[in-house]
Amino acid sequence: MPDTPDLLFDPHFLETPDALFQQLMANVEWDTRMRARRTASYGVAYNYSQIDYPATPLPDVLQPLCEQLHQRLGFRPNNCLLNLYDDGQSSMGFHSDDCTGLAPETGVAILSLGSTRPIHFRNKADRSHEVTWELVPGSLLYMDQAVQAHWLHAIPRVEAAGPRISLTFRQILG
């Protein structure tokens, strides 16, 4: 059993995360159907947590991020699901992302904006084994399909945390 998930973590992926955070906070129309956080989806149609998001053009501000991710990860995302955690009470429990609709040899890339939040990983084979990364503003965390197969991940509550936006990029098969 590996001690940590075999993932890519770059705490300095974005140069100006605060400007992007402010722009998204001011311009995104957030979906409120999910109780724990607000969401928005851009790109190809996507079904997330029994919520259908129709195809919606990717805003110009997200286009360069897709190119950066393509250069870094080797695939071009065609969907960006945004999660807005309003404060430290907004959270996400342990889960693995569904990879059945993803292009082969791809995974989920997470860009973090706003407040720093921890992400916990729990090994599926030994649920007592957990590791944590701090998702600082501008950081990239990439989980391939093998990580999803062997690890659960969660964003826990953090009492004093401010707002955070998680941009999750995928290449979804059409």
Range of strand content = 35-45%
| Proportion of residues in helical segments | 10-25%
Total strands: the figure is 12
SS field, number of helical segments: 3
Could you tell me how far the N terminus lies from the C terminus, measured between alpha carbons in angstroms?
35 Å
Structural class: alpha+beta
Mean pLDDT: 95
Low-pLDDT parts are none
- Encode the helix/strand succession as letters: EHEEEHEEEEEEHEE
Global Rg: 15 Å
What strand line-up does the widest sheet have?
Answer: 1-10-7-12-5-2
- Overall spatial form: globular
User: In this structure, how is the largest beta sheet organized?
Assistant: 6 strands, antiparallel
What can you see in these coordinates?
This protein is an alpha+beta fold and 174 residues long. The protein has helices at 17-27, 63-73, 145-150; strands at residues 8-10, 38-43, 46-48, 51-53, 79-85, 92-95, 107-114, 117-123, 130-135, 140-144, 151-155, 164-170. It has a six-stranded antiparallel sheet. A four-stranded antiparallel sheet has the order 6-11-8-9. It has a two-stranded antiparallel ribbon with strand order 3-4. The protein is globular and about 40 Å long. The model has no long low-confidence stretch (mean pLDDT 95).
Q: What are the SSEs and their pairings?
A:
Elements: E1 8-10, H1 17-27, E2 38-43, E3 46-48, E4 51-53, H2 63-73, E5 79-85, E6 92-95, E7 107-114, E8 117-123, E9 130-135, E10 140-144, H3 145-150, E11 151-155, E12 164-170
Antiparallel strand pairs: 1-10, 2-5, 3-4, 5-12, 6-11, 7-10, 7-12, 8-9, 8-11
